[in-house]
Amino acid sequence: MGLFSKKYTVGVHNGSFHADDAFAVATLSILLQGDIQIIRTRNSEELSRCDYVVDVGSIYKPTDKRFDHHQKGGAGERENGVPYAAFGLVWKEYGERICGDVRVAQKIDHDLVQFVDVMDNGVGKSVPVIADVYSFDVCSVIALMNPSGGEERVVNEYFNRAVDFAKNTIEQCVWSFRMLFVGESLIDDAYIKSEDKRFIVLEEDVEWREIVPKYKDVLFVVEGTSHADQWKVRAVRDTVHSFLNRKDLPIGWAGKQNTELVEESGVPDALFCHNKRFIATAGSREGAIALAKKALEA
Question: What is the pLDDT of residue 3?
Answer without folding.
Answer: 52
